[in-house]
Amino acid sequence: xxxxxxxxxxxxxxxxxxxxxxxxxxxxxxxxxxxxxxxxxxxxxxxxxxxxxxxxxxxxxxxxxxxxxxxxxxxxxxxxxxxxxxxxxxxxxxxxxxxxxxxxxxxxxxxxxxxxxxxxxxxxxxxxxxxxxxxxxxxxxxxxxxxxxxxxxxxxxxxxxxxxxxxxxxxxxxxxxxxxxxxxxxxxxxxxxxxxxxxxxxxxxxxxxxxxxxxxxxxxxxxxxxxxxxxxxxxxxxxxxxxxxxxxxxxxxxxxxxxxxxxxxxxxxxxxxxxxxxxxxxxxxxxxxxxxxxxxxxxxxxxxxxxxxxxxxxxxxxxxxxxxxxxxxxxxxxxxxxxxxxxxxxxxxxxxxxxxxxxxxxxxxxxxxxxxxxxxxxxxxx
Length: 382
Prior knowledge:
Elements: H1 2-20, H2 24-48, H3 53-63, E1 69-82, E2 98-111, E3 114-125, E4 128-139, E5 144-149, E6 152-157, H4 166-169, H5 174-178, E7 181-185, E8 188-194, H6 195-198, E9 213-224, E10 231-243, E11 246-258, H7 265-268, H8 272-277, E12 290-294, H9 295-300, E13 306-307, E14 315-331, E15 338-346, E16 351-352, E17 359-362, E18 367-381
């Protein structure tokens, strides 16, 4: 401490001697320079350094006016508790609730003209992880969503754009921002806001039923660049979802914004080949009386599951004839919980609890997986 004081005293004495050696004119010029530096610093702090969450969002909105495109990388992780009541059969006599990890990732290249959307869903059930991948193009001008189902393409018209742009994410009410927590960290500026005040708009592409979904808890952290003041990340911790008035699950969300203004229209433009191959859904098409779900067909088409609404219509079905061995599992579209699961003489115990004539209800978006050895089951419409 004494050594530091001596060094500071020497430095002060040196500066004082240097100033005294200057002429009167040089001293005045030095004073003017110091004042100018102070004014520039004050101006920068006043207009370019945010003081709170409201100023940060306003500054970010200004910096985002010229943004025409970007890449969004979204991730949602959660664990669903599945009890014996959710599963039609369990090998355990007293089945405690089991955790089913779910990971959804959506990567998008988007701009004013549309978006290219890659979606991957991973579900781990009974120690087995299944992965579902979908590729979509959204044409913002014609409001048409093109989606790939196995090797075929389909299209849906009059679809609203569910991909939020940066400008819309920054439009929060001042009353919400006024009570936000603001801090400067090593990675930039952070604004923390209760998730229920933000709503589901930032994470709409991660949800399949955002109209009936509400956020009842958790916190969103908006991260902005130190110098660019642009939005770089949105982090959600302990985000609690409610669907149709009931608590669904708690999850962790991460959204990264990169490559501002780098993606071009060619990155999300719908290829002409896809436009021609995609067929508009027939309005008066007759529905088949029954549908065969085959594990062999899924492997041939390099698919992981059947999707209700895409492969066959939703409704009530009666389980019919089955061939082969394996396990058939149906996951609900809203929360990925098990709607039903039947063991068909497969596994170490060769348990068979599948019965013909059972009634099952399927909704659009439900996913049906088949595993085992050449399992095939026919579903007959009720």
